[in-house]
Amino acid sequence: MDLLVGSDDFAVLLGLKNSTIGRDVPVGQEQERHRRFMEYVGPIQSLLLQASCIIFLQLRMNRFQTEEQQDVVWSRFCALYLPATVDRLLQLPIPTDTSNSLNREEMLADFAINNPWHEMLVQVQHIPYFAKYLRSSNPIAAAGKRLTQILADRLADVCQRWEKYMTENPRDEEKREYYKAAAGSAIQLLSTLGTNFINEPDRNAIISRATRGRLLPFLRMWNRRYEGQFLGDVSLRVTIYMSEVRQLDQDFNKVRKSHKNWDVCGLASCSIRKDLKVCATCKTVRYCSVEHQREDWRTGNCPHKLLCHRTDY
Predict the structure, then answer these.
(1) Which residues belong to any copy of the MYND-type domain (predicted)?
(2) Among candidates 215, 301, 281, 52, which has minimal Cα distance to 223?
């Protein structure tokens, strides 16, 4: 199996960069592109459908030796390719490799969420460059302001059918778990987007009242039914965000601060939150002093020098 090892390799697989080494997927073969992408970033269960445990372990070891190395790859990918990824997600190519689909309309609705560009955003949503992109006023990042609404609409379009698939046949556990995972992944991304727009004075500008009205009944139902499970937890977080209950925003802001690593000194051992100054190169992290910036640049499991990139946004 040909292993992906770097940010440029993922860009090639996503069709964002040309390749001379044969990893390209032809335009239109989007189901195949998604399958290949999930071989490298999907859950263990997906990989084991196509590979033995030994191959899976080799794949995992070759892809990323550590979480720190994974963050290095994702940071560089975001710095170079995040705007193109969002643009491709919002203007999806139409799959032509759907001859085996029994219902093309349903397949296309599912593909609007279950596609490699959406999955890439799920992978990088914790990377500080993702938050930087969303708060950027640069025209190259303009699509980020529409991302939450469009993803919420796409999820609302499939909720009723996915709910049916989760409950109609209790014996079909594989299908039920597949749609639970797909819904959870999409809702988790909405939750992350919500943390970045929590201080917007008009939340209707982020997710319209009509879309919230379509989503909230399903989010509340999934929160109750799957309480204590991943789908239930993320459904609760987005329910809080959409409900406009402002006193609950304090908890959401705690998540935001932890996620963005923006409101506290970037040196892991420091908790200072006042008089922070931003890194002039990447603008994704802030420090309380030059000394702490220098220390973070060269020390720790993942020194900042490995994560620091200039961006166009």
Answers:
(1) 267-308
(2) 215
d(CA 76, CA 299): 19
Give the pLDDT confidence of 46-91 residue by residue, as tens digits: 333 343 333 333 444 345 557 888 899 999 999 999 999 999 999 9
Q: For residue 67, count other CB atoms closer than 10 A to its CB.
A: 10
- Residue type for position 71: D
Question: Do 123 and 165 contact (CB within 8 A), yes or no?
Answer: no
Instruction: Quote the CA–CA distance of 165 and 141 in Å, as a whole number.
Output: 36
In 10 A of CB 247, how many CB atoms? 6
286, β-bridge pairs: 278
Can you tell me whether residue 88 is helix, strand or coil? Answer: helix
Rounded to an integer, what is the distance from CA 270 to the centroid of its chain?
28
What are the distances in angstroms from CA 298 to CA 102, 115, 188, 265, 309?
Answer: 55, 37, 33, 16, 15
pLDDT of 256 reads 47
Q: Are 96 and 29 in contact (CB under 8 A)?
A: yes
- Its pTM stands at 0.85
